[in-house]
Structures are given as structure tokens and as C-alpha cells.
Specification:
Elements (H helix, E strand, L loop, with lengths): L11 H6 L2 H12 L5 H28 L2 H21 L9 H4 L1 H21 L7 H32 L1 H9 L4 H26 L7 H8 L4 H33 L15
Helix pairs in contact: 4-6, 4-7, 6-7, 6-11, 7-9, 7-11, 8-9, 9-11, 10-11
Length: 268
């Protein structure tokens, strides 16, 4: 694949000027006394610091082309993603189970999809090339993190909120899977809605980020579409499998083999 044109380089002044609309929005929050100006400024500053730092780090990682360096960077990404999944739960599982369900489902499905894409689809040389592995893993992990956290949060909230209704269904002779099926379905829909919306809007309402970046760098649009389709299929599959695994594993943990509801296994 060859680029048709070189990318357009941006100066730091160009980047600063692009913040004009965000600055105007911040000023309006001050004028309207919404109390958001400080958090907006901190969030923007944090984003700038993180992206500048990761830019220099990726420059080193890409030049190294070392499998252990790639693994170390992926491990850092997984650690922060797992932390975000935990922080987004209103009611977490008690004990070590909080670390073993949501984060594990997200990381396992994401890692399998990444290896599949690198070894069978893209086939870079070497296959663990960080230039391909880390951006791809970041997109997969970020979307999976959102889906799994939303699905987990919904199922734990439902078990707490609908405790009486679930126990009534169990008393009527339903198994734990039958009693919790409508709540599991709702959790699955909640977890998969963001990626389904993104897939539905791709190409008609919005041009996805990876495709836009490739087109701006001079890649032919048809080639950019191929890459974007591959990414969206991988992300959709990983999110679906991750949410399914996390939700049904949570149901198994929050019930027992005697088909009793066990909300006591949630942290206080």
C-alpha cells in the first residue's frame, strides 16, 4: 500500500488554535455559572499531557521493535483499562472476584482478537510489530472496556434493584438462568449499544477515526475502508464476546447451584 500524498504537518500553533471552540465553550460555562470550567480545563490539560507523553513513548517503542517492549506497553494499557472497568461499577463483586470477571473477560477476548488479526490478517514483519499491535490493541481494548463496564454495571444494579422480583421468579420454580434472563438481556443490550451505534453510523453519519486518519495521511479511500471494516468487525466481536462472558459470569457468581440469589457476594 502506497500513500498518494504526504501528510500535512501541523505546528504547535495550529494545535493550540484548534482549541478555540473548546475555549469558547469554557467561557460560556463561566458566564452561565454552570460550575464546569475548572473540570473542563483540568480534563483538557490532562489530555494534552497524556498525548504528548505517549507521543514520545511511542516514538521509542516503535524504534525498538522488540516483542518484550510491545508486551510491556500492552500490559500497561491493560492495567489502566482494568482500573477503569472497576471504577465504573456502582456495586462491585466482593473480594478478588471484582478483578477476575470484568477485566479478565475484556483482556482475554481482546488479546485473542489482537493475535488473530496480527498473525492471520495483517501479518506484519515481525508479527508483534508495535506500530501495528499497539494502536490496534488500543482501539479494541477501549471499546471493550466501555461495553464490559456498562454491561456489568447494569446486571449488578438490576440484581440489587429487582431483588424481590428475581427471588419471586425463583420461588415459582424458575432456574437462576430463567429468572435472570430478562435482566441479562437488558445488560447485554446496554453493553453492546455503543458499538452497535458506531457501526450503524459508520460511513453515513460519520467517518470513523482510523479511516479519517488514513485518508488525511494520503491512503486511498478504498484501502482505508478495508482497514476500517476489519477494525469494526474485530471490535464488534470482542465487545459482544466480552460483554457476554462478563454478564453471565457475574450471574453465575451472584447465584449458586441451588438456584438462590446471592447479593451478599456484592461489596458493600
Amino acid at each position: 500500500m502506497t500513500a498518494q500524498a504526504s501528510y500535512i504537518a501541523l505546528s504547535y500553533w495550529d494545535v493550540a488554535a484548534s482549541a478555540l471552540f473548546l475555549f469558547v465553550a469554557g467561557v460560556l460555562t463561566v458566564v452561565l455559572k454552570l460550575g464546569m470550567a475548572r473540570s473542563l480545563a483540568i480534563t483538557a490539560a490532562r489530555m494534552v499531557a497524556q498525548l504528548l507523553a505517549i507521543g514520545f513513548v511511542l516514538k521509542f517503542i516503535f524504534s525498538a521493535t522488540n516483542g518484550w517492549v510491545t508486551l510491556a506497553a500492552a500490559t500497561v494499557m491493560m492495567t489502566f483499562a482494568a482500573r477503569e472497568v472497576l471504577n465504573r461499577q456502582e456495586r462491585q463483586l466482593a473480594g478478588w472476584w471484582r478483578f477476575g470477571l470484568g477485566p479478565s473477560a475484556m483482556i482475554l477476548t481482546g488479546a485473542i482478537a489482537l493475535i488473530y488479526a496480527l498473525t492471520l490478517l495483517l501479518q506484519p514483519d515481525p508479527w508483534f510489530s508495535p506500530r501495528y499491535a499497539l494502536p490496534l490493541f488500543g482501539m479494541i481494548l477501549g471499546n471493550s472496556m466501555n461495553g464490559v463496564s456498562l454491561g456489568l454495571n447494569e446486571i449488578t444494579r438490576a440484581i440489587v434493584r429487582e431483588k424481590a422480583a428475581i427471588e419471586a421468579r425463583l420461588l415459582l420454580g424458575m432456574t437462576r438462568w430463567e429468572a435472570l434472563r430478562p435482566f441479562a438481556a437488558r445488560a447485554l443490550r446496554t453493553g453492546m449499544t455503543p458499538i452497535m451505534n458506531a457501526m450503524a453510523a459508520s460511513g453515513v453519519i460519520s467517518l470513523p477515526g482510523m479511516m479519517t486518519g488514513q485518508i488525511l495521511s494520503g491512503v486511498p479511500p478504498v484501502e482505508a475502508v478495508k482497514y476500517q471494516l476489519m477494525i469494526m468487525f474485530l471490535i464488534g466481536g470482542v465487545v459482544g464476546l466480552g460483554v457476554l462472558a462478563a454478564v453471565f459470569a457475574s450471574i453465575a457468581r451472584l447465584t449458586d447451584c441451588r438456584h438462590r440469589l446471592r447479593p451478599d457476594r456484592l461489596a458493600e
